[in-house]
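Reply to dn_fold:

You asked what the input looked like. This is it:
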Amino acid sequence: MKNKGFVLMETIIVIVVISVALLTIFASYNKILTKVKTENKYDTSEYIYMTYHIKESLNDSIEAQKIDEASTLTNYKETIHNIFGVEKIYILTNLDKFGNNEKKVDAYMIDYIRKLDVRNNDELIIVEYKKPVMDPINYEQKKDSNGNELYETYIASLEW
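and this is what came back:
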């Protein structure tokens, strides 16, 4: 009889140890999945391509401004917002002084810039895109519990 109690305790201990190990593995796996989903929204080929076209168009608009043609950056801003879904455009120069300007930039943008492999004298154009979250079944934009439309943020950057 004494042997049966020992086997029961041994089984309970083994189950607890396996449960703790599985919970630890699941937590780390979930953390990795979340990180991958977040990083998939940074520098995808689609958004790098759009950023390249925005950069080229900005160069053309700036040149047009210099020679006093009719196009203005205000009209350009509305156009790229409607066509590409651009939320913000950052043109960063002299990144060694970036620490002083961090208050003007969103927290996730600061993390993104810190992950980039850039030198202090590099100039970057970083474009933030806002894309609606679509329901794959109905092909309609998803809404939250309050009826507000949901959007995902994508970021891409290029050297200026």
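Helices lie at 2-39, 45-66, 73-84, 107-115.
Hope that clears it up.
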